[in-house]
Design brief:
Elements (H helix, E strand, L loop, with lengths): L25 E12 H5 L7 E3 L5 E14 L5 E18 L7 E14 L2 H11 L3 E3 L1 E4 L6 E8 L2 E9 L2 E10 L4 E9 L2 E6 L4 H7 L4 H8 L5 E11 L1
Parallel strand pairs: 5-6
Antiparallel strand pairs: 1-3, 1-13, 2-4, 3-4, 4-5, 7-8, 8-9, 9-12, 10-11, 11-13
């Protein structure tokens, strides 16, 4: 960041370094959680310290796209993000080199997160260390019963996520204990779901996506063997 001009504002703090309160922000998340080959997902992990804890040859992952609106730090504007989340990750590392004790962490692993605004990518990389890259993320022909997300670069699509036959699942009341306020969340369950990547190959793929071709190739290797669950979650005003 340009240090010559003082601290830079971001999503977690304002120009004066005061923590922001996301009370007015709204969101919509559309997702596909699926069964896939554990052996391939292991190739996406950064080191042997990371493992997938599921038994046998299968693992689960999620392609998720979230659109946020009314963000204070963006002057009331919003943005979208698309990520691959690998579940059931266990990380083991030596916490004390003298005693030989090891620390174990469990969670999800995010190989890549596409976002459609440079400001988010810069702050997320520097403050959080997330693997963020740019892509256009456009909703196409969405309705109450369907959702279509087109991800691309410079006018060319490389990924399309589609949810059809959406039906209301349930209405939940969530209590955020940190700030003691509630958000109503509307959930929709999809009857059909798929994610499709471009079929461009070799030189054509490299020319169409010169800075993303390696990532697209890697994501195409993540096979959706069986959709476990899919749908949308959205905050209710």
């Amino acid at each position: 960041m340009p240090m010559s001009f003082g601290p830079s504002p971001g999503p977690r703090q304002d120009l004066n370094g005061i923590q922001r309160k996301p009370l007015k922000a709204t969101y919509k998340t559309s997702y596909i959680t699926f069964k896939t080959y554990k052996s391939y997902l292991l190739t996406l992990l950064p080191s042997d310290d990371f493992q997938i804890s599921t038994e046998g040859m299968w693992a689960t992952a999620t392609f998720s796209v979230t659109h946020l609106e009314n963000l204070e730090w963006l002057g009331g504007r919003g943005y979208s993000m698309l990520g691959l989340y690998v579940h059931d990750i266990v990380h083991k590392s030596s916490s004390d080199s003298h005693s030989g004790n090891s620390a174990e962490l469990k969670g999800d692993f995010l190989p890549v997160l596409f976002e459609n605004m440079a400001d988010l990518i810069i702050t997320g990389r520097e403050e959080l260390g997330f693997s963020k890259v740019f892509a256009t993320l456009d909703e196409k022909a969405s309705s109450e019963s369907s959702f279509v997300l087109s991800a691309g670069w410079e006018g060319t699509e490389f990924c399309r996520l589609t949810l059809n036959d959406l039906e209301e699942n349930q209405m939940l009341i969530l209590l955020f204990k940190v700030r003691f306020y509630t958000i109503r969340r509307k959930e929709m369950k999809a009857g059909k779901a798929e994610i499709v990547f471009t079929d461009l190959e070799n030189g054509e793929l490299d020319m169409a996506f010169p800075t993303l071709a390696n990532i697209i190739k890697g994501l195409r290797g993540v096979k959706v063997v069986e959709v476990i669950r899919s749908g949308t979650q959205a905050s209710e005003s």
